[in-house]
Amino acid sequence: MKTVKKLVIALLILGFLACENTPTPSPINPNTNTGTSSLKDTILKNVSYGASQKQVYDIHLPAKRDSLTPVVLFIHGGAWKAGSKSEFDAYVNLMKKEWVSVAIVNMDYRLASNRDSIHHEEIIDDIKSCIGNVLGNKGNYHISSKMAVTGASAGGQLAMIYAYKYNDYNNIKCVGNLFGPSIISDWTWYNSFNLWLGGNVSDILTEYVGKSWDTTAYKAVSPYHQVKSTSQPTIIFHGNLDPIVPLYQSQWLNKKLATLNVQKEYYEYPAFHGFDATQSADVVKKMTAFFKKNM
Fold this sequence. Notes:
The chain has a single domain, classed as Rossmann fold. The protein is built from 11 helices and 10 strands. The protein has helices at residues 2-21, 89-98, 120-136, 138-141, 154-166, 187-190, 201-209, 215-220, 223-226, 247-259, 277-294, and strands at residues 42-48, 56-61, 71-75, 103-107, 147-152, 172-178, 193-194, 199-200, 234-239, 264-269. Helix 2 packs across helix 11. The chain starts with a helix and ends with a helix.
């Protein structure tokens, strides 16, 4: 009997010592790519998703990607009728360093043009087609269907309106807006002359929407008027010296998101219509953390 007791005590002591010597797991580094595949970092340029030369995208595929790899879609600005995906190259590179396990799509789209009859609906169709092409190739790309969408200036408006109103594949999980207009139906803004844009704001909005002032049509493309309590978490960045897109539009959207209890973050910077290198790095850092949390 004493022998049995001694054996039990010895086993308990060994068990205790084993627990004491078990190393504490190191915390997971959120910037580490935890994928298990042997795939290498890959960049595909100018992947076509339509017949137009503008219907192309670049996709940055991380190493070790797999079917759980999230995707971020970038949409450039340029008053809807100018600009290109190359304007976002610096932001793409910043995000790749900040979030090594994400896939990034940087798209071009057909630009608004009265001559070519390209307006809001055609641009939205391009966003839908681009996302559809990415999802159609997710097996080849080795990525998930989960996507965040972000854009700057007109691209910020497009990112928000697509997420809030369309979201054709029900895969947009969160939204980023960099100084994009949220109230296209802003009569005061519509009637202003903007030296930075070199003309009347009404001319630009008319070409984008496809018609001159129409309250119903302009509200229909305004993220502020399309957001609802079930809308995706949204992060907003705006320069408080912005001479092109009124700061109050982002402030009002921020308040509406709060009223609707939509998860959101809002940041202002001492900046014009764009951010310097330090501010841009901070934007990407904050946006990446927000996207990770909501994907």
